[in-house]
Specification:
Strand content: 5-15%
Mean pLDDT: 74
Order of helices and strands: HHHHHHHHHHHHEEEEEEEEEEEE
Number of helices: 12
Number of strands: 12
Length: about 375
C-alpha cells in the first residue's frame, strides 16, 4: 500500500526513538500536585506576613517620634493610654519605665519576624515570634476594639499558626540552602562525611553573617528613605493597617484652662493686637465659616490638628492623630465628623468623642481662645 512503511512506523512507535523531555519537566500532573503542597499553598500568606511585619518595623525605626516620650505618636503615649483597659495593665505600667527600650525591642522583633518569614530563615521560630507580638498587641492596643473583628491583631495571631507547625516547608526558603541539605527524596540515604558537615557549618556561619550585613544596610537605607518621605507629625504607622501595630499614638483629652477645648468670642475676647500669652494664632474668625474646619500643627507637639467652628461664637480644637493607630483623621463637613482613613474610625467634630469603629478613646482636645477676631490655640 502506498504510504505505508512498516520499518518507519515501527521506529516511530519505539519509545527509545522519541525525543526525551527536559530533566526538570515531570509532567503537568506532577507540577499541579506540587503546587498543592502546603508550602506552596501558604506561600502568599507567608509573603504577606513577612512584608507587613518588615514594613511596620521600618516605619517605627524611621520615625523619631515613636521613641520620643513627649510626642503623641510615641510608644510611651500608647502604653499610657492602653494600660487602664488592658488585661495586662500592670505589666504595661511597669514597661513605662523603659518605654523607648520596649519600643526598640518591638521594632527589632518585628524586623526579625518579617525577614525570617520572607527569607524562610528559621521560619518556625519567626512565626512563633510573630504570634507572640500579635498576642501582645491584641491584649493592649486592640483589647478595647468593639466588635473584636475590627482589630487586625487577632487575625495576625491566628495567621501565624500554620507556620509554627510546618515552617516554610522548604518552599523558597534559605534554611535548606544554607545547610546544604539534599532533596527530601534523597535525605537519609547517604550520610554526609564529617568534613563535609564542618564545611557546611562554616558556610552557614559565613552566609548568615553576610545576610545580616546586607539586611542591616538595607534596613538603614529604607529607614532613611522613609524618614525623609514621612509627613511631619504623622503617626508611626502612617496610612498602614494596624496589623502588627506600628507606633500608634493614643492621646488623652486634656482638660483645664479657662477656655477649655471650646471657646467663644464673648468672654474670651481681648483688646490689643498681641497674641494672648502662651497662645498661637491658627486662623482668622472670619476666614472660618460655621460648620467648617481648618487644619494646623499643634504648637505643643508638632502633630496635625483641627480647629472647628461649631457655632457663630464657638470654636473647638482637637488633635488630628487617631487614637487607634496614629493615622491622621480628615474632616467631613457634611456629617460633621472626623474620619480616619486607615480603619474607618469616626469622631464627633464638636466633642471629639468616638462615634464608630475601633478607636478606644476620643481625640485629644486642644484649648482654643478668641481675641481680636483671631483664633488662638494653646
Amino acid at each position: 500500500m502506498a504510504g505505508v512503511n512498516p520499518v518507519r512506523d515501527q521506529r516511530q512507535g519505539d519509545p527509545s526513538r522519541r525525543s526525551a523531555a527536559p530533566a526538570w519537566w515531570k509532567g503537568p500532573q506532577w507540577q499541579a500536585q506540587r503546587l498543592r503542597q502546603p508550602g506552596w499553598v501558604l506561600l502568599p500568606l507567608r509573603l504577606f506576613l513577612g512584608v507587613t511585619y518588615t514594613y511596620a518595623s521600618l516605619q517605627k525605626l524611621a520615625n523619631p517620634d515613636f521613641f520620643t516620650s513627649g510626642s503623641p505618636a510615641s510608644v510611651q503615649h500608647q502604653m499610657q493610654s492602653v494600660a487602664p483597659t488592658s488585661p495586662i495593665g500592670p505589666l504595661v505600667q511597669l514597661s513605662l519605665h523603659a518605654g523607648a527600650a520596649v519600643g526598640l525591642v518591638i521594632a527589632l522583633g518585628e524586623l526579625a519576624v518579617g525577614l525570617g518569614a520572607l527569607l524562610g530563615l528559621k521560619t518556625r521560630l519567626a512565626a512563633a515570634g510573630g504570634a507572640v507580638l500579635a498576642l501582645s498587641f491584641f491584649l493592649t492596643v486592640s483589647w478595647s476594639t468593639s466588635p473584636y473583628y475590627y482589630g487586625a491583631d487577632i487575625v495576625f495571631l491566628f495567621a501565624w499558626t500554620p507556620f509554627i507547625s510546618i515552617g516554610a516547608a522548604e518552599v523558597m526558603a534559605l534554611d535548606g540552602w544554607i545547610a546544604g541539605r539534599p532533596p527530601a527524596s534523597a535525605r537519609g540515604r547517604v550520610p554526609a562525611p564529617r568534613a563535609e558537615a564542618r564545611r557546611r557549618s562554616r558556610r552557614a556561619v559565613l552566609t548568615t553573617g553576610l545576610l545580616a550585613v546586607l539586611l542591616g544596610g538595607l534596613t538603614a537605607g529604607l529607614g532613611r528613605l522613609l524618614r525623609g518621605s514621612r509627613p511631619a507629625g504623622q503617626g508611626a504607622d502612617g496610612a498602614a493597617a494596624g496589623g502588627p501595630t506600628s507606633g500608634p499614638s493614643r492621646s488623652r483629652p486634656t482638660s483645664g484652662g479657662s477656655s477649655g477645648p471650646h471657646a467663644t468670642s464673648g468672654p474670651h475676647s481681648r483688646s490689643g493686637t498681641r497674641a494672648p500669652a502662651g497662645m498661637t494664632r491658627v486662623s482668622a474668625v472670619d476666614a472660618l465659616p460655621v460648620g467648617q474646619a481648618s487644619q494646623f500643627h499643634d504648637p505643643a507637639t508638632g502633630s496635625p490638628a483641627w480647629v472647628v467652628r461649631t457655632g457663630q461664637r464657638s470654636f473647638a480644637g482637637f488633635s488630628a492623630v487617631c487614637t487607634h493607630a496614629g493615622c491622621t483623621v480628615g474632616f467631613d463637613a457634611n456629617s460633621q465628623e472626623f474620619v480616619c482613613p486607615c480603619h474607618g474610625g469616626t469622631y464627633s467634630a464638636t466633642t471629639g468623642k468616638v462615634l464608630g469603629g475601633p478607636p478606644p478613646a476620643p481625640l485629644a482636645a486642644i484649648p482654643v481662645q478668641i481675641a481680636d477676631g483671631q483664633v488662638y490655640v494653646r
